[in-house]
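COMPLEX REQUEST
Ligand: pyridoxal-5'-phosphate
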Amino acid sequence: MIRYDFRSDTVTRPSPAMRQAMANAEVGDDVFGDDPTVKRLEERTAGMLGKAAGLYLPSGTQSNLAALMAHCGRGDEYIVGQMAHCYRWEAGGAAVLGSIQPQPIAHQADGTLALADIQAAIKPDDPHFARTRLLALENTLGGRALPLAYMKDAVALVRAHGLATHLDGARVFNAATALGVPAAEVAAGFDTVSVCLSKGLGAPVGSVLVGEADLIQRARRIRKMLGGGLRQVGILAAAGLYALEHNVARLADDHANARRLADGLSAFPALTVTPPDTNILFVAVAAEVAEAFNAHLKENGVAVTSTYGTQRWVTHLDVDAGAVDTALAIVAAFFR
Ligand SMILES: *Cc1c(COP(=O)(O)O)cnc(C)c1O
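STATUS: Structure written out below.
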């Protein structure tokens, strides 16, 4: 049985107060534009990110796809990182449903895409090539907060070539917290930004796509096409509003807990800890103990994800400092 769940910040359950907000939500048929709670959530999110309009969607995957399809048509392409969620982890939706060609490029060690690589990937207007339309960045990426100066330079570079920009800001509030700036500064310069409410913010479902009004209007049509037009969905949007009001400032606690975990795990020579920027911690486990160590954690109710000898520990609002200390004690018992 899982008692300390560090697999992902998506495992959070709605709190009693969030459930109360959901039960009390004012609703209407959102496909008719009648749901006041959805409208409030869309406006609130857009406001926090410094954009004109917002669109509530069931998932981050659908939000990214609606954005890519709002920017790009059939035979267009978007430049994107090899490890970016909207390229690698969304079942190829842009290509399958949008007829959009991805142009993935390798990340630098710090998670950025080298400006020279972006520049080289922009195709000239020539019938041999897909039309390069968009740069899609992600922040945070693998828990890392990309620096503001880098994003500004990347956006300026592609703007000079007439490209549009999308930010997969699933964890944009974690990025803002780590960078010590308002989220609107992380979002600045991007035409569209997708934000997840169901990660560290603790809502059970939902993402909001924000951007300029005409793009968001296009995305609204595409959302309908993708099956994401929902009815009395204010009952879910209320959870998102609650999350924005109560669970943004406390992301700093998750980051502190990730550092606490990193400090504790660093004491064991078999564990190589990458210091975390935000709430996601990567731990390489020495090959000779990896299997037994993973089994020990599992037996003691500590859940992490693990691939190729690298564990991912994610902190969130359902694992507090006490849970971190208990998990560290369980780790210590293994190495003793
Ligand atoms: C989780 C995530 C998404 C997709 O969100 P879902 O709601 O799971 O579809 C997109 N981008 C990033 C960076 C994510 O972490």
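REMARKS: The mean pLDDT is 97. The pocket of pyridoxal-5'-phosphate is lined by residues 59-61, 64, 85, 138, 168, 170, 196, 198, 207 (CB under 6 Å).
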